[in-house]
């Protein structure tokens, strides 16, 4: 059944998705749910299992609309499955996509689903992550049958972090007046530090769920600077406040997205930072929290670090 204003892609896609998901249950197009005043593009009746409402999203939609429809399905015990059309297939991975539509799938990590109407295939972007330098990545797999979802695949290996190149990029961006770094540089400058000259101990090659805005590395630099600049002893609640403030400064999102949270990831990143600083003998664990033992050495700027690195 087609409704007024639907695109040909949307009409064809709903029918294709009903056929694709048929092994999971009987599909009904345009299922009306009067109790929540919503209509599912494709409804999967799974017998004794939780029903699934497939939303095939081809047109722009606001975050509030996605949140409202998702909450509506959840309120009546229905699993909402957002699958994105051609408009979204063409987009680069970005926070708006992840925030609205990403969800955790057992074995696949944080995922986004896309449907290619012309090829009649499902694209699964799984293990969504954010590299230390800020880039968002995913491992992509094309599925021709729904049963392939039962065979999770591992994430692809991420490239190594090129720290000299990263420092050079920070230096260049600051010289060019990059507005996205201005607030970070001003924060560090007031504490006598320059962003590209961050100590190696504050660097990381780890990837996390994509909640860190401009990147986990910048978050570590900011939080690490505050730890050594403000006081000598820290409690667990105080450090958690620093972690949250640092996330805000780098444009991150502690609440995560509509269907996943970021708090656990932020706790993990803070734990990793503290473990690195303890291993480097810059901090010591105490009964109440941590004590500063020594401050890492900063370079004056990225150029100085690069010159020293080349001499080595």
Main sheet: strand order:
1-2-3-4
Q: How does the overall form come out from the CA principal axes? A: elongated
Model regions low in confidence, pLDDT < 50 over at least 5 residues: 1-5
Order of helices and strands: HEEEHEHHEEEEHHHEHHEEH
Count of separate structural domains: 2
- What is the terminal-to-terminal distance? 69 Å
Radius of gyration: 23 Å
Q: Averaging pLDDT over every residue, what do you get?
A: 92
Strand content: 15-25%
* Annotation, overall tally of beta strands: 11
InterPro entries: CoiA_nuc
Pfam families: CoiA_nuc
Protein name: Competence protein
Question: Could you characterize what this model shows?
Answer:
There is one protein chain. The chain has 312 residues and is an alpha+beta fold. It has 2 domains: 8-150, Trna Endonuclease, Chain: A, domain 1 (3-Layer(aba) Sandwich), CATH 3.40.1350; 163-311, no CATH class. The chain is 38% helix and 21% strand. It is built from 10 helices and 11 strands. The strands form 3 sheets. A 4-stranded mixed sheet has the order 1-2-3-4, with helices on both faces. Strands 5-6-7-8 form a 4-stranded antiparallel sheet. β1 (26-33) and β2 form a beta hairpin. α7 (216-230) packs across α8. The protein starts with 7 loop residues before the first helix and ends with a helix. Residues 1-5 have low confidence and may be disordered.
């Amino acid at each position: 059944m087609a409704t007024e204003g639907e695109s040909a892609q949307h009409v064809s896609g709903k029918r294709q998705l009903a056929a694709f998901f048929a092994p999971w249950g009987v599909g009904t197009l345009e299922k009306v749910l009067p109790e929540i005043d919503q209509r599912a593009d494709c409804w999967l009746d799974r017998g004794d299992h939780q029903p699934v409402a497939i939303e095939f999203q081809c047109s722009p939609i606001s975050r509030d609309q996605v949140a409202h429809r998702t909450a509506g399905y959840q309120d009546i015990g229905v699993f909402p499955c957002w699958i994105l059309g051609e408009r979204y297939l063409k987009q680069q991975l970005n926070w708006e996509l992840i925030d609205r539509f990403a969800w955790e799938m057992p074995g696949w990590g944080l995922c986004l689903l896309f449907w290619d109407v012309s090829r009649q295939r499902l694209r699964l972007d799984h293990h969504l992550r954010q590299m230390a330098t800020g880039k968002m990545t995913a491992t992509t797999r094309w599925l021709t049958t729904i049963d392939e979802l039962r065979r999770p695949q591992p994430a692809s290996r991420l490239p190594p972090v090129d720290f000299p190149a990263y420092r050079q990029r920070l230096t260049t961006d600051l010289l060019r007046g990059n507005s996205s770094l201005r607030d970070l540089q001003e924060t560090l400058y007031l504490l006598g530090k320059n962003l590209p000259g961050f100590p190696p101990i504050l660097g990381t090659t780890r990837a996390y769920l994509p909640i860190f805005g401009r990147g986990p590395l910048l978050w570590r630099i900011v939080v690490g600077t505050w730890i050594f600049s403000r006081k000598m002893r820290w409690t667990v609640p105080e450090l958690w406040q620093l972690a949250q403030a640092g996330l805000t400064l780098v444009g991150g999102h502690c609440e995560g997205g509509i269907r996943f949270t970021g708090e656990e990831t932020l706790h993990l990143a803070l734990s990793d930072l503290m473990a690195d600083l303890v291993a480097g003998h810059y901090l010591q664990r105490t009964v109440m929290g941590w004590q500063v033992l020594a401050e890492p050495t900063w370079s004056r700027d990225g150029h100085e670090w690069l010159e020293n690195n080349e001499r080595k």
